[in-house]
Amino acid sequence: MKKLRYTFKSDILFKMVFVRYPSLLKAFVSAVLEVPVESITDFEIINPEMTPAHIESKFCRLDINMRVNGKRIDIEMQMANEGNYPERVMFYWARDYSSALPAGEDYSTLPGTMIVSILDFELFECAEYHSCFKPLEVTRHTLLSDKMGFYFFELPKLPSEIDGGERLILWLSLFNANTEEELERIDKMGVSVMSEAVNAYRNITTLPEYRELERIREKARHDEAQALNHTRQIAFSEGIEQGIEQGIGQGIAIMARKLLKRGRPVEEIMEDTGLSYEEIEELRTSHTNL
Q: I need a surface site. Which of 99, 172, 228, 253 has the fewest CB within 10 A?
């Protein structure tokens, strides 16, 4: 089998395809929400920008944030389990939800906000590839509000056999494709929107602009890995008498304090260090000059 050089698991490719081909994004969202495409009348990508300078940042987070029929929907493509993922998506939801209320407006105008996570790892101990969480009363299962929703799609749990009648599985299988043969199998299923998506993939991956962004992202990842390795080495040398694990913890704390001093957002520091929101806030409060 011929391995694909680029796959949809790359957040750059994922975002560029859907920004350049919004009709495909609308089709995917309709499959996630289980509504007809024609029923989506209000549709806007809020953050289409993807500049080289942004990609070069070690803290770049490429999501797709959009407005769909009055709701806010954020789509994340996550390749690796970096820890605390449920807490991270709840943080993203809280930020998006609270920032959507204009000054002086009533709370009732807050839009429904959904976080859609496509994961290339197993997060939950269950056989199902799709999990949806909403706030329910623990005994009666009464829905508290329809304005909160978390959708998780775990690609390793997808069924090996697919057919053209399951729109959502077709999309997820496309995102999960690693070989040319898998792409061709999806293309030949006779589903027009999936053939369009495969063609969009082929068009985008031949663009010099896309390949340059991938090169910049790869360099940023190498730089980030080098910086973290250097921090660990410092931690080993400074904290060796207290044990290797404690040394690593000290080094990560040092790095987190430096990032706080530089004014980096807390969620970016969480992603880079693996620390929780509470641990970072404790570092901030214990050092009054941060």
A: 99
The whole-angstrom separation of Cα 234 and Cα 227 is 11
The pair of structure tokens assigned to 57 is 């940042």
> Residues, the chain, total?
290
Between CA 179 and CA 156 the distance in angstroms is: 15
Distance CA 14, CA 54 (A): 16
Tens digit of each residue's pLDDT (9 = 90 or more) over 67-87: 999 999 999 999 888 889 999
pTM value?
0.76
Query: Residue by residue, what is the 3-state secondary structure of 11-66?
Result: HHHHHHHHHHCHHHHHHHHHHHHCCCHHHCCCEEECCCCCCHHHHHCCCCCCEEEE
List, as one string, the DSSP characters of 211-254. HHHHHHHHHHHHHHHHHHHHHHHHHHHHHGGG-HHHHHHHHHHH
Q: Is the dihedral of CA 91, 92, 93, 94 positive or negative?
A: positive
Query: Which token pair is 204?
Result: 């985008």
Question: Is the pLDDT assigned to residue 254 strictly greater than 70?
Answer: yes
